[in-house]
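EI: anyone free to look at a 76-residue chain?
SC: sure, send it
EI:
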Amino acid sequence: MLSTYKPKSIQVIGFDRFDYDFLKNIRRDLVISIPFIHAQEINYVVDANGNLISDGKYYREYNGLNQLVRLGNTST
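SC: here you go
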């Protein structure tokens, strides 16, 4: 939900630009930093089989065949 965002400013490296010589070798790398607003951190809990147990919002239960058998809200 948009109302649960906790803004945090971080930097993302992107938009790499390069200069090339006449043999098409890279001479220089120019990196431009772009700040953006990041959502709150989400902690995931998985079991030994890699099944997602909890994502902070929902709790999941699996049977012996790793099939989802129950999904519920996580109480905070």
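EI: The chain has two domains: 1-41, 42-76.
SC: 👍
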